[in-house]
């Protein structure tokens, strides 16, 4: 792969979606997945409560088989929750549901990115970042020497999918979430930023009101119209959590000191 695609020479780099993971995962020491609405926000809620979260790329029959294989409960679609299966990608639903020790959380965006990163040869440390834990993630990385050109970090914004096609739709909430992680990492360590990472960091630090931006974004308005405004409100809170979820043995768990 050409060095410019890998943003070679910079301590902090930024890309989008699963293609970005394929470009960068083998080129960096740590990778932060950012899917604000809602995978990484949901992961932060569940891990905070004590659940190990297994990312899975597909919401189909294979997800059920995988949950059985790893001895976990299976999250369902937001509109499919029931008394028997109260877990979904909804952060609000996860907060009110019983806390399972292990949970499979399927998602075609953030979960697929995390799974792809974990499969990379000599794969990086994989973290789940969002607005609510961005500063904690940045400080954790900096304290362990990540973010230097010799130990680079890739921040991968998930984006969304267009409803009528398979193409990536860059999403402002993920740009802001990625920018929040970049800004926190820079403040903690003075890392060198690729232009892509610097632009994301500037987007976060210069936006007038992050909560309003997320709420009024295309994705925020979509979730609100579908009846999940509380999910948007939870995801839009900046630095609401100090928990850093790290992928460990195929599941996200709290980072070890």
What is the mean predicted local confidence, pLDDT? 94
| Coarse morphology | globular
N-C termini distance: 34 Å
Please give the number of β-strands.
11
The radius of gyration is 17 Å
Counting DSSP H or I runs of 4 or more residues, the number of helices is 11
Main attributes of the structure:
single chain, 257 residues, alpha/beta, 4-stranded parallel beta sheet, 11 helices, globular
Blueprint of the fold:
Blueprint: E1 12-16, H1 17-24, E2 30-34, H2 39-49, E3 52-56, H3 61-70, E4 73-74, H4 91-96, E5 102-106, H5 110-118, E6 125-129, H6 134-143, E7 153-157, E8 160-161, E9 168-169, H7 172-189, H8 195-206, H9 210-216, H10 218-225, H11 229-235, E10 245-248, E11 251-254
Parallel strand pairs: 1-7, 2-6, 2-7, 3-5, 4-5
Antiparallel strand pairs: 8-9, 10-11
Helix pairs in contact: 1-5, 6-7, 7-8, 10-11
Task: Report on this structure.
The structure is a single chain. With 257 residues, this protein is an alpha/beta fold. The chain has helices at 17-24, 39-49, 61-70, 91-96, 110-118, 134-143, 172-189, 195-206, 210-216, 218-225, 229-235, and strands at residues 12-16, 30-34, 52-56, 73-74, 102-106, 125-129, 153-157, 160-161, 168-169, 245-248, 251-254. It has 11 helices and 11 strands. It has a 4-stranded parallel sheet with strand order 1-7-2-6, with helices on both faces. Strands 3-5-4 form a 3-stranded parallel sheet, with helices on both faces. Strand 4, helix 4 and strand 5 (102-106) form a beta-alpha-beta unit. The protein starts with 11 loop residues before the first strand and ends with a strand. The mean pLDDT is 94.
């Amino acid at each position: 792969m050409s060095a410019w695609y890998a943003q070679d020479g910079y301590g902090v780099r930024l890309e989008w979606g699963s293609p970005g993971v394929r470009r960068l995962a083998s080129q960096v020491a740590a990778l932060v997945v950012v899917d604000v609405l809602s995978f990484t926000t949901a992961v932060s809620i569940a891990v905070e409560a004590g659940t190990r979260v297994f990312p899975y790329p597909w919401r189909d029959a294979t997800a059920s088989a995988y949950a059985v294989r790893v001895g976990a409960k299976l999250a369902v679609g937001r509109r499919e929750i029931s008394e028997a299966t109260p877990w979904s990608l909804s952060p609000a639903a996860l907060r009110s549901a019983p806390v399972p020790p292990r949970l499979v959380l399927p998602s075609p965006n953030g979960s697929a990115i995390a799974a792809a990163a974990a499969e990379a040869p000599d794969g990086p440390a994989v973290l789940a970042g969002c607005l609510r834990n961005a500063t904690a993630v940045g400080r954790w990385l900096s304290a362990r020497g990540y973010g230097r050109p010799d130990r680079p970090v890739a921040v991968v914004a998930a984006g969304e999918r267009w409803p009528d096609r398979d193409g990536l739709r860059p999403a402002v909430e993920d740009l802001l979430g990625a920018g929040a992680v970049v800004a926190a990492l820079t403040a903690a360590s003075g890392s060198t930023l690729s232009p892509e990472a610097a632009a994301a960091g500037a987007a976060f630090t210069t936006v007038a009101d992050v909560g309003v931006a997320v709420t009024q974004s295309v994705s925020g308005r979509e979730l609100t119209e579908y009846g999940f405004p509380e999910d948007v409100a939870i995801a839009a809170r900046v630095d609401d959590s100090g928990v850093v979820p790290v992928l460990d043995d195929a599941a996200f768990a709290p980072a070890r000191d």
